[in-house]
Amino acid sequence: MTKIRVLDPDTVNQIAAGEVVERPASVVKELLENAIDAGSTSILVDVASDMTGITKIRVTDNGEGMTGEEAALAFTPHATSKIRDIADLCAVRTLGFRGEALASIAAVAEVTLVTRPRGGGALAGTRLVVRGGEIVEKNEVGAPEGTTIAVERLFYNTPARRKFLKSRNTELAHVYGAVENLALAHGEVAFRVVHNGKERVATQRSEGLLNTIAGLYGAELARSLVPVEGRLPFLRIGGYISRPSESRGNPSQISVSINGRSIASRQIAAAVREGYGTLLPKDRYPVAFIELSIDTGLVDVNVHPTKREVRLSREREITGAIAAAVEEALAGHDLAREAPAEPVQQQIAVQEPEPIPAPAAGEPGAPYTAGHRELTLSDKQLRRTETEGGENLLPAMEPIGQVAATYIVAEGADGTLYLIDQHAAHERILYDQVVEQRDAASGSQELIMPVVLSLPPKESAALRDALPLLADGGFVVEEFGRDTFAVRAVPAALGAVEDPGTVREAIADLLADEARTAPDRREAVTCIVACRGAVKAGAHLTHDQQKRLLAQLARTKTPWTCPHGRPTVVAFDKRKLDRMFRRG
Ligand code: ADP
Ligand code: MG
After folding, report:
1. Residue 354 has what pLDDT?
2. Please, are residues 396 and 412 in contact by the beta-carbon 8 Å criterion?
3. Residue 122 has what pLDDT?
4. What atom in ligand 1 is closest to the CA of residue 95?
5. In sequence order, what are the beta bridge partners of 42?
């Protein structure tokens, strides 16, 4: 009796059908999945390539192996040891279950298999050569326990598919990607990838995902990550996510596994991104490694032939819990610590020191007395955002001064040097308050003099369109006469703006294409109001104003970034400063 059986036609018909072998990386993925399902603890992937592309893939595992009879059956279509019938699928724990991979691979390549079952039952191992789906050689050989499968001449008999292959490096990159995905989901296995004799990837066997991440992407990335945790009765969320300072231009670095299966899910990636909220700019994505354990009854794996996609019941609850877990993980962390400033260090290392010229009047560095108007404007802006109480989320720091009238320089109690972007910081403060007022549907401030806008027809049509949105954001705008509008009130965060220019600017921003087409226009309004109402870069601040700004920033919920996700605070701790000056 063998453990492998051919599924009955009824069951076969109910399993998602389709091609699984698209490229060398698909072969690697299927062979690795089989090795993992066989209970391996150590897997070697050996890839050879020449100018024409990948010429050979060999996967060696120390799993349970197969008898000679099983090995021959394994290449039959729909032959599997993993399920008996369709009912088994709802509790399936193995990665494979279709019984199709070996048959499909052997149909389009030359495959050599050497295997011996674990446990010493069989004295010798089995060697099989399968070409174009036919077993062309079968003999007994001496072999270690476990299985080695070598695949050569992939697509030799399907030139059309061979034509679709990309450059050697692209195919290799896909191979590494396939290994990384499985390695992340299976820390219990040590993976090693060798290409043309050189080791390319190596992970240790370990219980911790963080160790695997370190093995794949380096200790530095691993150290900078923040752990995520969450739970629902049918769900456990674990994993690691990047600080906002470590972001990417696309979501491809958000990796997700469900019950040990590496999957692609736009919904889950979006949930992770959502958890960052305004900590990241709109078009940036985090690096994340999310591990989900979900009751198998809620996960339908029978959706896609390559099993890269699954269907989740209660998906809303699951994505909601993921977003919340990410948000919570970030809220509990001092996000600035890792933000600085390797580039600065490098710059200092390579630049010749320049003699410091004596400051000339009117140039940066020269003593400057801010004009009265400038200071009172900043004062008004800061007064509007003054609040009582609240928790301090920034380390205590004392301002020392300003650089370029743009950055506040401050010292922490432990000798940390902080640079604060005054505009970004005030934007964050305003943004939080506008959101609060917006959600409380309060916070309109009547203007002493309405601001009148006469607009060209196109703009006025846009403004008419945007009226409900503006009202929601705290603007009271009335149309009177053709293409003429009166702004009677603005969000309290903008203050009683004596300066009609600010109102015009804010409205112009709102009418700009970006705001009109933004996926969340309400959010866009809030950002614009925060930006326009905030202390400007280039405004000189008194010591007292700097202090107030820092105190207000410390009481926001996410003081480390502005609503566009840019950093507000950059820190250089004493150790870093010492290193920069080579003090040891
Ligand atoms: P599936 O994984 O869906 O069952 P495959 O075609 O990938 O289908 O493999 C067929 C069968 O061959 C598996 O069910 C398993 O019993 C056996 N097999 C394949 N690879 C290995 C391996 N590396 N070690 C032990 N058994 C294997
Ligand atoms: Mg398989």
Report:
1. 35
2. yes
3. 65
4. 2
5. 190
User: How far is Cα 145 from Cα 129, in angstroms, rounded to an integer?
Assistant: 19
**Residue in the block written with tokens 């309004």:** 525
* Mutate-to-test residue for ligand 1 from 19, 27, 34, highest number of ligand atoms within 8 A of CB: 34
Find tokens 């698909």 and name the residue: 26
- The verdict on 269 and 304 lying in the same domain is yes
Q: To test the ligand 1 pocket, which listed residue (37, 44, 98) has its Cβ within 8 A of the most ligand atoms?
A: 37
**Token duo for residue 414:** 């432990």
Domains of the chain: total: 3
Q: How many CB atoms lie within 10 A of CB 396?
A: 12
Q: How far apart are CA 336 and CA 334, in angstroms?
A: 6
Residue 57 domain-assigned?
yes
- The residues of the chain scoring below 70 in pLDDT are 122, 334-375, 389, 440-443, 495-500, 513-519, 584
**Within a domain: residue 565?**
yes
The whole domain housing 61 covers 9-201
- Say if CB 334 and CB 245 are below 8 A apart: no
Point out the domain boundary residue: 155, 182, 201. 201
| Ligand 1 site, CB within 6 A | 4, 30, 34-35, 38, 61, 63-66, 74, 79-82, 96-103, 147
Q: Look at residue 225 in the predicted model and tell me its pLDDT.
A: 92
pLDDT of residue 440: 67
pLDDT of residue 374: 66
> Secondary structure of 205-267 in the HEC alphabet?
CCCCHHHHHHHHHCHHHHHHCEEEEEEECCEEEEEEECCCCCEECCHHHEEEEECCEEECCHH
Alpha-carbon distance of 268 to 262, in angstroms, equals 12
- Break the chain down into helix, strand, coil percent, rounded to 5: 40, 25, 35
CATH of the domain at 294: 3.30.230.10
- Residues 317 and 455 grouped into a single domain: no
Indicate whether 223 and 326 sit together in one domain.
yes
SS3 122: coil
Residue 1 covered by a domain: no
Q: Residue 13: which CATH number?
A: 3.30.565.10
Q: 553 and 529 in one domain? A: yes
CA distances from 424 to 112, 245, 260, 561 (A): 62, 15, 41, 8
Q: Report CA-CA distances (Å) from 505 to 217, 254, 344, 377, 488.
A: 45, 37, 35, 17, 15
Of 288, 315, 335, the residue that ends a domain is 335
- Give the model's pLDDT for residue 135: 96
Q: Which two tokens stand for residue 114?
A: 């050497």
Q: Do the domain assignments include residue 25?
A: yes
Supply the pLDDT for residue 584.
67
**How far is 467 from 476, CA to CA, in rounded Å?**
8
* Dist. CA 5 → ligand 2 center (Å): 13
Nearest to 242 by CA among 207, 206, 215, 217: 217
